[in-house]
Amino acid sequence: MEQPQEEMSFLAHLEVLRWHIIRAIMVVVGVALLAFFFKSYIFKYIILPHTEGDFPTYKFFCEIGRFFGSETDFCNQKLPLVIQNRTMTGQFSATLWISFWTGIVIGFPYLMYEMWRFISPGLYQQERKMAKGFIGITSVLFFIGVLFGYYIIAPLSIHFFATYSVVGGEQMIKNEIDIGSYIDMLRSSVVSCGLIFELPVVIYFLAKLGIVTPDFMRKYRKHAIIVTLILAAIITPPDVASQVIVSIPILLLYEVSIFVARYVQRKQEKN
Length: 271
Known about the structure:
Elements: H1 10-37, H2 39-47, H3 56-67, E1 81-84, H4 90-106, H5 108-119, H6 125-128, H7 131-163, E2 175-178, H8 179-196, H9 199-208, H10 214-219, H11 221-235, H12 240-270
Parallel strand pairs: 1-2
Helix pairs in contact: 1-4, 1-5, 4-8, 5-7, 7-8, 9-12, 11-12
Pfam families: TatC (PF00902)
Membrane topology: Multi-pass membrane protein
GO molecular function: proton motive force dependent protein transmembrane transporter activity
């Protein structure tokens, strides 16, 4: 079996890492500049549609309510909130942040590629062949998480807080939301879900290092369920339905991670 490449000094490793980081930053900045150029399209068709009643998620839950003979708030044509800007640089800052996170999300596969290029010289040839699989799997899981956050977590959260009011009727307090607050909720929902969906990949490497075993994960499955419910309560509105919707895919990821850990363990025992 081919041995890992010759060891490098600490300073040489830092120099190599520096260039990997520089290339990754250049890609993120490049995508961010492109996103800034198309800012009107991004805000109109990606950022702001959650404030409209015809967003696909709202229509879906509206139809479910009608199926059970109930007319829910999801059937409203427009959410009772107004996105506003109260600072001179508010809209410009919002554009910069949206451009930056667009660069992170779209450039994620390349970020994983640069990370793999940095760690792969220390691996055996057989392990380096996994590069394409590593980049592909991490990217697919991340984008699935992003879509889940965008179409499930974000609309449920935005809809809940947009329709929540401590006083009803004519005295209802208007929700005039600052654009920065709105973008923060949308960004945290999308990016956090993208990272959460990387759980099987994280478990794979922990299993390779012997830190996590399938028996350990099975033993603490009940604890994982409690942690999942707490996590779901943090990233979703405080209602049971939303927490259950979020918990299901996370628990499925946990079960998949058990199979991943078992696969790694069996392969190591075979070798």
